[in-house]
Design goal:
With 143 residues, this protein is of the alpha+beta class. It is built from 2 helices and 6 strands, in the order E-H-E-H-E-E-E-E.
C-alpha cells in the first residue's frame, strides 16, 4: 500500500509532449489508477514520487508546488487535508448502500462527469454512484 500519492489531471490546456502521452498510456490502468479524469501514482518513498514528478514536469505538466496552477497534488497517508489543494480537485465522502463496505473518502475532479470509483489497491468491480454508492451531491439509490 503506497504511503505517498501523486494525483495528476492529465487533460490540461498546455501542450504535453508525445513522449509524455506514451508514458501515461504505459502507466495507465483504468481498473486501478485512472478514472478518465484523474490519474494516481503511488510510492512507498518520497524519492520514487520525486521521480514521477520529474518525469511528468519534463513532459509539460506543472508540478505540485504551484498552487492553483498545479497539474498534480501530493498526498501522504492517512487521508487528511492537503495543503494548497487546487480547485480542480475535490474530496468526496462516499457511502455504500449495501452496508457491507465502510464509508470512505475519494478523490474526484471537481465538476466531474465520472460516477465510478476505482480502488488503487485492488481490482474490485468499480462501484457506481446511484447504484452501489453515493456522494455529494447526493442522488440516492437508483432502482
Amino acid at each position: 500500500m503506497p504511503f505517498i500519492t501523486l494525483i495528476l489531471r492529465p487533460h490540461v490546456e498546455q501542450e504535453i509532449s508525445a513522449k509524455g502521452w506514451r508514458y501515461l498510456f504505459h502507466h495507465c490502468d483504468p481498473n486501478r489508477n485512472f478514472d478518465g479524469e484523474i490519474m494516481v501514482f503511488g510510492a512507498m518513498s518520497g524519492r520514487d514520487i520525486e521521480l514521477y514528478i520529474d518525469e511528468l514536469t519534463s513532459f509539460g505538466y506543472v508540478g505540485p508546488d504551484h498552487g492553483e496552477n498545479s497539474d498534480m497534488v501530493l498526498w501522504e497517508m492517512p487521508f487528511g487535508p492537503v495543503a494548497e489543494m487546487p480547485s480542480w480537485l475535490s474530496v468526496v465522502d462516499v457511502t455504500f448502500f449495501d452496508g457491507a463496505r465502510k464509508p470512505c473518502r475519494a478523490w474526484k475532479l471537481s465538476n466531474s462527469g465520472v460516477y465510478q470509483l476505482i480502488d488503487f489497491h485492488t481490482k474490485i468491480a468499480a462501484p457506481t454512484k446511484g447504484y452501489e454508492c453515493d456522494w455529494a451531491p447526493l442522488i440516492g439509490k437508483i432502482s
